[in-house]
Structure formats: C-alpha cells, structure tokens
Amino acid sequence: MKRMLVFCSRDGPSSKAGSVEQYVYQVFSRIAAEGHHVVWVAPRAGRRKSHSVEFVKGIQIVRLGPRPLYRPLARMLVARFVKSGKFGDQFDAVIDCVIGKPLPLAADMESASDKEEVLPEVVPLVFDLDRRMCASDDPPGPVIAASKSAREVLMRAGFPERLIVQAAYGVDVDALETSNQAVLAPGQHIAVVGKWTRGLFWALRRLAQDGDPVPVRLPHTSERRPRVPRRLAPFVTSCANPEEAYAAARFGYCAEGAEAEALVLGVFGVPAVCPATEAGAEYVIDGETGLLYPPGDKRTLAERFRLLLKDDVLCARLAAGAYAHAQQRTWKRTAGLVLATIENLGRPPLELDSVPSHGRTPSGSHTQWPPILHP
Hints:
By secondary structure, the protein is an alpha/beta fold. It folds into two domains: 3-170 and 331-358, Rossmann fold, CATH 3.40.50.2000; 181-328, Rossmann fold (3-Layer(aba) Sandwich). It has 13 helices and 16 strands. It has helices at residues 19-33, 70-83, 87-90, 105-112, 148-156, 181-184, 198-209, 242-247, 261-267, 278-283, 298-310, 312-328, 331-343, and strands spanning 3-7, 37-44, 52-56, 59-66, 93-100, 121-129, 143-145, 164-166, 189-193, 216-219, 236-239, 249-254, 272-275, 290-293, 350-352, 355-358. It has an eight-stranded mixed beta sheet with strand order 3-4-2-1-5-6-7-8, with helices on both faces. Strand 7 (143-145), helix 5 (148-156) and strand 8 form a beta-alpha-beta unit. It is elongated and about 80 Å long. Residues 178-185 and 350-375 have low confidence and may be disordered.
C-alpha cells in the first residue's frame, strides 16, 4: 500500500468543480479504490468557517483555511510533519499539483529536518507552469504532465523528455453505455455542447439557406433551455439526457471551453468539430478523430459541417477513430500511470506504456522544486 499526500490549491469535488478538481478526484479516487491511502490537502471554498475533514470515495480531504492563506499553511503543515520525525513513516510520496507556481515543498522538508531521516519524495503533477520558471541545475525527479500542453511547457522549461510522464485527462468509459452500433450507424443530427457563438449561428443559418438544414440537439441537464435564435428554433430540440443525444448524433460540435466533451462523444463513436485551441488539439486529432477549425472562422466551420453531412465515408472513418481514441484515453489508464510513477520512485528509469520514461534524483536528495526563475 502506498500512502500519498496530495497538495492541490483547488477545493474537493463539488457541483462547480473545474477540470483540475475533476482530474485529481477521478485519478486519486481510483488509486484509493485499489487500497492505497490518499490525503488531499485543499483550501476552504465558499462560506466554510472552520477546518473540515471528510472522506469522498476513499480520499481523505483536509481543508486548511481560506485560499489566500493556502500556500503558507501548506508549507507549515509539511514543516510540522517533518519535525515530528515520522513523516517518512506516514507517507511514501508528496504530490504537488502545480497550477502556475509550485510549492517549495522539497526545500521546506530539507530545511525543517534536523537529522538524517528518509523523507518522502516530492512528485510534481503539472497542470500549468509559470512561463518564467525553468528546471534547476540538479537532476530532477519524475514530473507528471496532466496534458499535452503541460508537457510542452515542461520541455520548454528545460525538463528532459525522458523524465516527463504524460498522464492526460481521460473519460469514464465504464460509466457510459457504449456499443459498436454507435460507430457503425451514426444518426442524422448534430449534438451541440457548450456555449452558442455567433460563428455557430452563422454556420447553421448558412447551411439552412443553402438547402442543407442540420437538425440540432442540445444536451443539457438544467431545466432552463439554452437560448436559440428564432430562425433556427424549428431545427433545434432539447434533450435532458446528454448520453441519449450523443449516442444518436452523426457528429458533435464542442464550443470553446467544452472541448473535453469530445472524448465523451468518442465513447459513442461520434466525431467532434472543435476550435483549434490548445484544449481542442488536446482532445481531438484533426483528420483522425474529428475536425478542427480556426477559432472565429465561421466560413470554415460551415464547411466542416457540410463535409461531415455529405461525406459518409469520412464521417464513418472519423467515428471509428474517435471511438478507438476514447478507449485509450480512460481515467483508469491515467490513474495507472500516476500510480506507476509513485510506485517506481527510487528505481532506474523505465518505460511506461509508450510514455516517456522517468527517473528520480540520486539517493539522499530530493526533487529540486520549484525550478529557478529566469533572470
């Protein structure tokens, strides 16, 4: 059994949880389900007036204080653990969820330790990194990148590619009803996910004027129906069950900010059209699992829609590619990569399922984190 102390500056799972909280919850709840001990240290959110401890899906969530005081309180907690002399006996690894600037946990651990003792290794889990930071001169330990863009930022910061483990966002395939028929028999409508934009209005209106109206389904879970232009209202229907709308769609459109839903569409064998943002390129492989278009280019968006409506062969090929891609991007696999990184601390670098290998610092030293700043 591995014992992990996870520091994340975002609060635990809730109805308003963002992508970072979802990642931490999905990954470490699966690790905890395998019998490992996980403690998630987070700041208080909302109107909580006192420290709180709760268990969610096997994760012990500890809230220290308000978010402005989270960093100093987290460092004080680590220093107290080290001074107790039992930090190494209580935890095997400390996970620092980096969103911009990392916590100097390794330096705090070394400065607080007044005797020779085995301290847990610090493993950064990077979501985003301050552009002004770079790797230290000392050999770094394993670094986990939560996305393709995080991996690229780490490489620009000077981290060797072989030390970066890319454990990207996934999808809960087991919780969704899937079948091969979704891949082989696409429907005839488009599932629109996310905020409606002027470009989307223009593209759908242009297709309707050219005699190719596209039936649209709006998957939403709230009672309030999203606002739809009056001219497009006859072609738009709402669906309270998103899975039902996804399973019967010919293709989907994921607006900016909702690109992650492309993986959910892929579980049902439905290709997605997304803007070519960093997130869009993270979840959609252009020409293989869906189509990308320049953000704000309404004419190209209309052509992407027309192409998927007219070309059955292309649509079927993208549907099969989206389904295969979603089966590889599961939360179970992501959790396995994170757990394997922690379990292999102290061992020589090894390959992890076609992911760049990782290593650690020499015995007796810890990951030099945070990296030094650029002058």
